[in-house]
Write a structure and sequence with these properties.
Layout (H helix, E strand, L loop, with lengths): L3 H11 L22 H6 L7 E5 L14 E5 H7 L8 H13 L4 H7 L5
Antiparallel strand pairs: 1-2
Length: 117
């Protein structure tokens, strides 16, 4: 079984660096790159930090397997599991996308703020 950190990184790359739920670009803590892109992303809000999201929750018997892990931003990951009974991953993804479309998802508000000058 591959380590969770490796699976998360593979999934982030496969997803084009975007969150599985909200589709916003994420940053990976401690990534080493030759370009300034990662340094720029690390100045992004903490809520966009890449996490490993279990599609089938560990608390319900989900495993750390490639087929059960996606890369999701911290915000989306933490919000899904706040519910007493988390929505299935596809229903949650649909809910997040619907809320993003009307500007009712916190990540959208955080990322759309203009920097203070």
């Amino acid at each position: 079984m591959r380590a969770l950190k490796i699976i998360r990184k593979e999934k982030m790359i496969k997803q084009g660096g975007r969150c599985y739920y909200c589709d916003l670009p994420m940053w990976e803590n401690g990534a080493k790159t030759n370009s300034g892109t990662q340094r720029k992303m690390e100045s992004a809000p903490h809520v966009l930090r890449c996490t490993a999201e279990h599609l089938h929750a560990r608390s319900e018997g989900g495993k750390n397997t490639v087929s059960n892990i996606v890369a999701a931003c911290w915000f989306c990951n933490s919000r899904r599991h706040r519910r007493k009974r988390p929505l299935p991953s596809e229903k949650y993804r649909q809910l997040v996308r619907e809320r993003m479309a009307v500007g009712r998802w916190q990540v959208a508000a955080v990322t759309s703020r203009s920097p203070k000058e």
